[in-house]
Amino acid sequence: MGAVLGHLTRRGRTREDEAMDVVSDVICTMRVGRPALSLEAAAPSWQEEVSAFEGARFYVGAAGRLRVTAPDEAVITLRPGDAVLLPHGTAHTLVNAADGTARFLSGAYRLERARPHPLFQDLADLVGLPARPDRYRGLQASIDLLLGELGERMHGRDLVLPALLDVLLVHLIRACLAERAGLRATGWCVALDDEVIARSLRAVHERPGDPWTVESLGAHAGLSRAAFARRFTAMVGQPPLTYLTWWRLTVAARLLQTTDVPLSTVAQRSAAATAPPMPSPTLSRASSGSRPVVTAGSTAPTAGPGQRLRTPEGPRARTSTPCRDAVP
């Protein structure tokens, strides 16, 4: 029965499934360390300069208004339910733009920057996502669940929050890609929604060790060699074999970092042995761990349960015990 169900699932895969499976691979490859999450409370007139970070940050408005300003003077004001993603961890300024206390979710994911995936590189430094349940139902549902878990001390909270953080990251990237696709004619945001290119990317990600050629990838996608090469390069920004080689080396690096398999097995799974020599970062087998750290906050009445109070007098004052790998 399992084999039959698996067969039906593969045959019933839609174009969106193919694209989103590639996105899942990208996220799993780039995620390192442990993400952080907190529910913040900022007093009137409060503001803070947030330094650049080796990863992605996000904020979600819970009450009042929060203004997020990037160095290029891009400004996004968050109201309850609105979200903003900074996929490159760009330095920015936070300002309470309300007359009263502003409350917001603050989170960060550490990402591998030694080999950044071009999908992330294709995203803008600051992406605003207004609350739109009609368009981003999954994103809004994830936000509501997170706020609910942080607002109450319920059984199983330590298991639910890490899972919700992973779900939220996927929904944030989905929404960013959708917003970006409406403004671009090429790029990863468009390539993932292109039936031909999504099929070829799926093949590369599913079977990086296969002896792919431009001709075989084109045939798999249903195009001639020349037509496929032009289309892939225009959409993705790299020739097919250049991306294939890059992905093989990325897979090999990830296997070395997170598993104890022999080097020969790593080479076999990723076909890294067939890749041409090129500079690569120093590899380590030490796993960085995957369990998120959820930073608890102050229980002061003005901040509310599970929140930290931010004041105009200075930067954030943590009242909880610092956790290893927590994001500053």
User: What composes the largest sheet?
Assistant: 7 strands, mixed
Summarize the amount of helix as a percent range.
40-55%
- Helix segment count? 11
Rg: 22 Å
Shape: globular
Task: Give the percentage of residues in beta strands.
Answer: 15-25%
Rounded mean pLDDT score: 77
Helical/strand content category: alpha+beta
- How do the helices and strands follow one another from N- to C-terminus? HHEEEEEEEEHEHHHHHHHHEE
E-strand count: 11
Give the low-pLDDT segments. 1-20, 275-328
Distance between the termini: 49 Å
Question: Can you tag this structure with a few keywords?
Answer:
328 residues, alpha+beta, disordered C terminus, 4-stranded antiparallel beta sheet, 11 strands, disordered N terminus
Structure description:
The chain contains eleven helices and eleven strands. The chain has 328 residues and is an alpha+beta fold. A hairpin with a 5-residue loop joins strand 4 and strand 5 (75-78). Helix 4 (137-151) packs antiparallel against helix 5 and helix 10 packs antiparallel against helix 11. The chain starts with a helix and ends in an 18-residue tail after the last strand. Mean pLDDT is 77; it is low at 1-20 and 275-328.
